[in-house]
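EI: anyone free to look at a 306-residue chain?
SC: sure, send it
EI:
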Amino acid sequence: MTTATADFAKRLDQTAEDTEALLAKLLSDTLLPDEIARPKRLMDAMRYSSLGGGKRLRPFLVVESSAVFGVPREAGLLVGAALECIHCYSLIHDDLPAMDNSDLRRGRPTLHKKTDDATAILAGDGLLTLAFDIVTRDEIHKDATVRLLLTRALARASGIGGMVGGQILDLAGEGRFGDREPVDVARLQQMKTGALLRYGCIAGAILGQSSQKEYQALDDYGRALGEAFQIADDLLDVEGDAAALGKPAGADAALGKTTFVTQLGIEGAKQRVHDLLARADSALSVFGAKGDVLRAAARFVAERKN
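SC: here you go
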């Protein structure tokens, strides 16, 4: 697996580079048909929050899950760019004073600190809607049904029963709407963080028009990876270094969040990550050696330092 690990690192960097270039093109000042104008302040804000940073793990998952089925890389990158727009919009809104009230993101001032709340809200709205413009494009797949399935799955991962629903459960658990509400950490994770990561995995199966068995394998893998990612995030908030994280450490504790660490303890959380890696590896067995890069991705997620 040493070769797969090295291959993973190279492919992750390449996808990040390709995603950066694609997002820069998608967020250029060039008007699309039916657009009237692209206001400079809005475009500058959208570019500030989506270019020049991030590991691009979510686009990577789309590209690599697609590669298992021989899907053209360009199609995977487009779907990955749509997913990254959703992710970046969520970070902008998550950082707002009404949400987590964060000052730093990726080692830089958060967008509302760089500009103002209204610009940040609208930049997030712009990225959200651009995502659905991208994911419906004809060049992703000749079959309109495939594009429809990709779009519907992205909406559900992003919305009420996914990320947005998870965000309001998180705030309720902090006591934002009165008394603190009990938090089911596993369900919260599946929605707020895990839903978009899972989408990165099942998108490849949709693009590749996989069998039900192959779809289920990537679904299981995506769920395990998503939970491992969140536990690693919770551990970093306790044990991580702010400089490496690019944001303040200890934010969860300051907000009184219920996390996997508060429920399982540090050692229990680490053991849970170990178990999830085994589950992810087992899910990928149907793909044989074709799943090696995705296996390495799960280990990267579990062992990351930022």
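EI: Residues 3-303 form a domain with the Farnesyl Diphosphate Synthase fold (CATH 1.10.600.10).
SC: 👍
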